[in-house]
Amino acid sequence: MLKSQNKIYLGARKVLQQNFRGSYTVPSSELYPHQWLWDSCFIAIGLRHYDLQRAKQELISLKRGQWKNGMLPNITFHSEALNFDGDLWDSRISNFAPSDVKTSGITQPPMLAEAIYQVGLKLKEQQRIEFYKEMIGCLVRYHQWLYLERDPKSSGLISLVHPYESGLDNSPLWLAAVHRLRFPWWVRFLKIKNFRKFFNYFRRDTTRVAENERISLSDAVEYFYILNKLKKYKYDSRTILHKSRPIVEELVFNSILVRANQRLKLIAREAGYSLPRHLLDRMRKTEHSLDKLWDSETRQYYSRYMRSGKLIKRPTISSLLPLYAGSITRKRAAELVGQLKDHTAFYPHFPVPSVPINSKSFNPDNFWQGPTWVNTNWLIIQGLRDYGFHKEARDLKRQTIQLVADGGFYEYFSPFDGSGKGAPNFSWTAALTIDLINT
Ligand code: GLC
Question: Please, are residues 65 and 108 in contact by the beta-carbon 8 Å criterion?
Fold first, then answer.
């Protein structure tokens, strides 16, 4: 490790120490004081380089929030002091929710298999087998839930029922899907009247981070309305898939699932666990499912509406994520790498922006509408490596580490000047920087 990298490495460890809560790590002490699903996975991937016990614990702690039907919630609420968030989700309206802890009622990208696998790589064989055995039940039940509850057409593509499930909360593709819905009068009224002060009272983010860097008030109101529908249906997927909107077969989620399934097979093999046939059949379908999301006209991958099958043709960073999936052809991967390297779109001074800079929806400051994020860079780097684009992977890795070294451990960054935005001391930025330095 270079001397300059050692300084970043130590800084990153400090962030992860500050955000540690005994058995799990919060994404950010101020802004996100609970446990988030894919955050914990990214965090464990960093922790494995210096504290294997804690890395294992980070993942084991996710089991506490798992629902009886296998669902892993995107948020497990731990802090009694901030019960408002937990009450907002009110998970106990579902018979499947755990009774001893409050959680959200929706999930997040299935990074768990990758995280378990990556932590396992650092363990000695016997310990690895034990750890895999400890996690396999939770993991299998989660993947089974995805297929049983969220793949109504048996297409191999999982459907999402709320933008938060993608982890890319206000990405233009979600805003397009939400803005075409018709909302009741009170939602429209709140938006017209712009009850900014009233609503901001309930928002933690805009009291801590500049308003122009966060999801807009009017979008937040619509998201809140959709969440209320999910609650009305008691988080029952079958009813929701039938009655609620939008329902989207989302690209990042499904790309991550393709690789997760591969990892699940490896973990099961080492744990001596035989995966049920019906699960294997569905997993096989997923492997080829990304082809359905390819648009030959614009030569890009997109998410699509589950019901109509119509592609949501909004260019976002999601279009590059099939690289991480690993199931597309090398030729297609090369085409995506060509798009990645375009300086007028995905490769400005501080790549990779969450929306290409030449898109009408691009905004360099706002959350998932343009800023560069370390987790999506990390996913792309893994994909570049696996497809043999080693120079591109090395370049992006170097630029990502430099971005964090200069900008700090922020949640996201301006793709133009590299300035840090959103929450400071953000856990996955720290953890994945540690991983990039060490791999
Ligand atoms: C935001 C992000 C989401 C993340 C969460 C906690 O909601 O969009 O991906 O998991 O914050 O960090």
Answer: no
Residue nearest to atom 9 of ligand 1 (CA): 167
Q: What is the CA radius of gyration of the chain?
A: 20
Question: Which alpha helices (H) appear in 180-274, and where do they start and end?
Answer: 185-193, 196-202, 205-208, 217-232, 237-243, 251-271
Confidence check: pLDDT of 218 > 90: no
Q: Per-residue pLDDT averaged across 332-344, rounded?
A: 98
Q: What is the dihedral of CA 149, 150, 154, 157, to 10 degrees?
A: -160
In tens, the pLDDT along 231-257 reads: 999 999 999 999 999 999 999 999 999
Q: Hey, how many other C-beta atoms are within 10 angstroms of the C-beta on 297?
A: 7
Show the CA angle centred on residue 324, arms to residues 235 and 144, nearest 5°. 35
- Burial zone of 197 (CB within 10 Å; 0-12 exposed, 13-18 middle, 19+ buried): exposed
The structure's pTM equals 0.97
State residue 186's pLDDT score. 83
Phi, psi angles (nearest 5°) of residue 280: -60, -40
* SS3 assignment for 90-120: CHHHCCCCCCCCEECCCCCCCCHHHHHHHHH
How many other C-beta atoms are found inside a 10 Å radius of the C-beta of residue 418? 18
Q: If you average pLDDT over residues 359-367, what whole number do you get?
A: 97
Of the listed 58, 249, 392, 411, which one is catalytic? 411
Catalytic residue among 169, 205, 222, 249: 169
Number of the ligand 1 atom closest to the C-alpha atom of 426: 12
